[in-house]
């Protein structure tokens, strides 16, 4: 598939052509990621390196391209995804971090109270917890996930990125009952059962359904855990949850129903509803 002795730039053009011919709209970016990983360098390095394609690289790249053509996300192929300027290990046990979630991460970085205890639910790869801890080393970060396999990936990322996070396995808030937090954040499963049937194959066939499907209306997690989160918040503590673009009104209503205040919807760069925030009132008692 690839000629020995080709320059990295020639190989990049070849990969891009193969993917374009297959109808891949992200052929250019995928080709750059694959060739950059193959030579362990950036675009400048690809243009200046004197290395040439050898048999070992040709075999590895051919495997990567075959997997791309089969629909496997390039992040899983390379076991890497970028989020908030950091590089994370990703496997099919965790969702691929997406730029949409940076809205939640950036808000948490800016708004978390000084030296607050922060909780990240459904942590997956750990990208939210680690990114916030990286930018705000003063906070005390705890992260939970129901998946043992996902937490294994999150711990690896925490070790690689030197982020001090307490990792706990369990369903939602269950592993932290009795604790109090100044901020709870979460990117929960929120895709509806019907929407699951129409997801792109590279999502439906490869990413973990446990982290995607939120039930008939996509609201199962919010209904179950928003009241619990409210009880775990300190007075004036914040709850911030990522949502689907059409779920802003419903999640706002759920937060309001359990007594949260200052409820607001934050939008992503495409001006779509992406995060709902709410604050626990000062002096409020638990039910």
Q: What does the model show?
A:
The mean pLDDT is 94. α6 (102-111) packs parallel to α7 (127-135). This protein has a 7-stranded mixed sheet with strand order 5-4-3-6-7-9-8, sandwiched between helices. Strands 1-2 form a two-stranded antiparallel ribbon. The chain has helices at 8-21, 27-39, 43-48, 55-69, 74-78, 102-111, 127-135, 148-160, 193-196, 201-204, 220-232, 248-257, and strands at 81-83, 86-88, 117-121, 140-145, 165-169, 181-186, 233-242, 261-267, 273-279. α7 links the parallel β3 and β4. It is built from 12 helices and 9 strands. The N and C termini lie far apart (65 Å). Helices cover 40% and strands 18% of the residues. With 287 residues, it is an alpha/beta fold.
Please outline the helices and strands.
Layout (H helix, E strand, L loop, with lengths): L7 H14 L5 H13 L3 H6 L6 H15 L4 H5 L2 E3 L2 E3 L13 H10 L5 E5 L5 H9 L4 E6 L2 H13 L4 E5 L11 E6 L6 H4 L4 H4 L15 H13 E10 L5 H10 L3 E7 L5 E7 L8
Parallel strand pairs: 3-4, 3-6, 4-5, 6-7
Antiparallel strand pairs: 1-2, 7-9, 8-9
Helix pairs in contact: 1-2, 6-7
Report low-confidence residues grouped into runs of 5 or more.
none
Cα distance, first to last residue? 65 Å
Radius of gyration: 21 Å
Main sheet record: 7 strands, mixed
Short description:
With 287 residues, this protein is α/β, with parallel strands linked by helices. It has helices at 8-21, 27-39, 43-48, 55-69, 74-78, 102-111, 127-135, 148-160, 193-196, 201-204, 220-232, 248-257, and strands at 81-83, 86-88, 117-121, 140-145, 165-169, 181-186, 233-242, 261-267, 273-279.
């Amino acid at each position: 598939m690839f000629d020995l002795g080709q320059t990295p730039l020639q190989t990049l053009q070849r990969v891009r052509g193969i993917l374009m011919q297959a109808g891949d709209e992200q052929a250019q970016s995928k080709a750059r990621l694959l060739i950059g990983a193959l030579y362990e360098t950036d675009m400048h390095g690809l243009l200046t390196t004197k290395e040439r394609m050898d048999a070992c690289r040709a075999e590895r790249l051919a495997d990567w391209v075959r997997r791309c053509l089969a629909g496997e996300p390039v992040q899983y192929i390379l076991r890497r995804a970028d989020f908030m300027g950091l590089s994370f290990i990703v496997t099919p046990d965790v969702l691929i971090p997406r730029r949409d979630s940076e809205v939640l991460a950036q808000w948490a970085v800016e708004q978390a109270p000084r030296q607050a205890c922060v909780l990240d639910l459904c942590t997956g790869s750990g990208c939210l917890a680690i990114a916030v801890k990286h930018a705000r080393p003063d906070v005390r970060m705890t992260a939970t996930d129901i998946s043992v396999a996902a937490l294994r990936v999150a711990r690896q990322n925490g070790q690689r990125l030197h982020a001090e996070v307490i990792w706990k396995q369990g369903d939602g808030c269950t592993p932290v009952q009795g604790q109090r937090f100044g901020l709870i954040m979460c990117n929960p499963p929120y895709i509806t059962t019907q929407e699951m049937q129409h997801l792109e194959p590279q999502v439906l066939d490869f990413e973990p359904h446990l982290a995607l499907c939120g039930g008939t209306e996509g609201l199962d997690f919010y209904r179950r855990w928003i009241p619990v989160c409210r009880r775990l918040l300190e007075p004036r503590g914040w709850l911030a949850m990522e949502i689907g673009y059409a779920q802003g009104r419903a999640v706002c209503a759920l937060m309001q129903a359990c007594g949260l205040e200052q409820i607001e919807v934050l939008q992503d760069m495409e001006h779509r509803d992406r995060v709902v925030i709410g604050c626990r009132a000062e002096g409020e008692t638990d039910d």
